[in-house]
Write a structure and sequence with these properties.
It is a single chain. Helices cover 0% and strands 36% of the residues. It is mostly beta strands. The strands form three sheets. It has a five-stranded antiparallel β-sheet with strand order 4-7-12-9-10, with no helix packed on it. Strands 1, 2, 8 and 11 form a four-stranded antiparallel β-sheet that branches. Strands 3-5-6 form a three-stranded antiparallel β-sheet, with no helix packed on it.
């Protein structure tokens, strides 16, 4: 689960709909209290289809959202094995500027239905005009960093300062399986 503010050090949040609160569908029409990210303005599924879940109760567990009432569920494809790794893209309100420093931060919590040791989450800055290919890291953009998410009860903070090496218009969040 994730909430993603991305800000240049002088300018506030650059992510559209950073807490996933603005949705285009009512929860009463959803299956298992989840919403496809295709119904969340500002966010696009880049690989597979992450879900957006209301808190505190949904199919993944009972975690309260860090900020607001909704969070995104991004699968790492593990431990179920039959599910793909999921990748979510969030549009920025303006492009990053090559050579400027940005603070990128997000909060993650492991779903209760997952088993230890946790999942590895990665964050990238990317250009939406580049066709995404899960098997080609060159299409992913500039890696900001990653975090082992292994806490069921609390939100873990990821925070990194990064010097943008291009004019990016999107942030990407990717789950990766961890071998047990």
């Amino acid at each position: 689960s994730v909430e993603v503010p991305c800000s240049p050090q002088s300018n506030g949040c650059m992510v559209q709909n950073p807490s996933f609160e603005n949705v285009l569908i009512t929860l009463s029409t959803t299956v298992e209290n989840q919403i496809s990210t295709t119904n969340v303005p500002g966010w696009v599924p880049l690989w597979s289809s992450p879900d957006v879940c209301p808190s505190p109760t949904n199919f993944a567990g009972t975690q309260n959202a860090f900020d607001g009432n909704i969070y995104a569920g991004i699968s790492s494809g593990h431990p179920w094995g039959v599910f793909d790794t999921e990748v979510l893209g969030g549009n920025l309100t303006s492009n990053t500027v090559t050579g400027n420093w940005y603070n990128v931060h997000a909060r993650f919590s492991q779903a209760e239905l997952r088993t230890p040791p946790g999942v590895w989450m990665e964050i990238y800055l990317r250009n939406s005009s580049t066709i995404f290919d899960i098997s080609d890291a060159l299409t992913w953009g500039q890696r900001v960093g990653g975090l082992l998410v292994n806490d069921f009860n609390n939100w873990q903070l990821f925070s990194a300062n990064i010097l943008a090496n291009d004019n990016y218009d999107q942030i990407m969040i990717k789950g990766d399986a961890i071998a047990t």
